[in-house]
Design a protein that fits this description.
Phosphodiester glycosidase domain-containing protein, transmembrane helix, membrane, 23% helix, single chain, alpha+beta, transmembrane
């Protein structure tokens, strides 16, 4: 009887040792996993993808009376660079917002800098040389005369600029911010998609002081609500500009906020100059 009890006691001690070893092992694994997680989290916080980029813009957030949230970047036209993206903007190491309309990898809106389209060669389909299918409002910065305009054109040849080596042109849809009677007819003629539906939206404007405004709202809003929010909330005089591509393409990269839209790849962006 004693021998049986002693054997049982030995087995119990052996099982207890194994249990202790398992507990210690699990604790060590948990500590290691926690340490790795903290390291990765710390690393992700420290590795800001925009570190080193020139912060050549001012940032502003506002909310309209209809609760449309606007996120805005204002900057000099000399600090603008129209460039190809080919990815969701959150994957592009550049400050800025989405640009014009596209289908697949073809850019359907004008996006030209110094007579060079951003997404291919001059006069090629999908390059950014054309506003495809329709004449549409195109925001033009004439660097030589230092003047802005919205020109309703179908291609780069039609742009009226002083010096073909010193301008940029970004296509979209005319907003006509100074004409309350005309603007709805114009967006119909220029075929603004889903104007009466509540979608995310984006736009590019200029003002009397010579600033450019890049604006995105993640608030689902109609074209009228977005335009009204701009007129209410942008702290500038003499505003004019264009609607850009909207819905899930409405994206912004700023040091202050990332607006990913629906994280779709966009073909073209309006970037802050000096971006990598």
């Amino acid at each position: 009887m004693w021998a049986l009890t002693e054997a049982s006691t030995g087995k119990l001690k052996q099982l207890w040792r194994r249990r202790q070893w398992l507990i210690v092992s699990l604790l060590l694994l948990m500590i290691a996993a926690s340490a790795i997680s903290m390291f990765l989290l710390s690393r992700s916080h420290k590795e800001n993808p925009f570190d080193g980029l020139p912060h050549a813009y001012s940032y502003l957030e506002t909310v309209s009376t209809e609760n449309v949230q606007l996120y805005m970047m204002s900057l000099s036209p000399e600090d603008i660079k129209l460039r190809a993206a080919g990815a969701p903007l959150q994957q592009v190491i550049a400050y800025g917002i989405n640009g014009g309309f596209f289908y697949g990898d073809a850019l359907l809106s004008i996006a030209i800098m110094n007579d060079i389209p951003t997404n291919g060669v001059k006069k090629a389909y999908g390059s950014g040389w054309f506003n495809a299918k329709y004449v549409r409002g195109t925001l033009v910065w004439d660097g030589s005369s230092r003047s802005f305009s919205v020109q309703v054109v179908s291609s780069g040849e039609e742009l009226n600029v002083t010096d073909r080596q010193h301008y940029f042109a970004q296509g979209g849809i005319s907003m006509n911010l100074q004409d309350e009677e005309l603007w709805e007819d114009v967006i119909a003629k220029e075929h603004l998609p889903y104007s009466d539906e509540k979608r995310m939206r984006s736009g590019m404007l200029y003002d009397d002081s010579g600033k450019l405004w890049l604006i995105v709202t993640p608030t689902l809003s109609t074209a009228a609500e977005f335009r009204s929010a701009i007129l209410q909330s942008v702290p500038a005089e003499g505003l004019e500009g264009i609607f850009l591509d909207g819905d899930g393409s409405s994206q912004m990269n700023a040091d202050e906020i990332i607006l990913p839209g629906d994280s779709r790849a966009v073909v073209q962006m309006i970037a802050v100059d000096g971006a990598k």
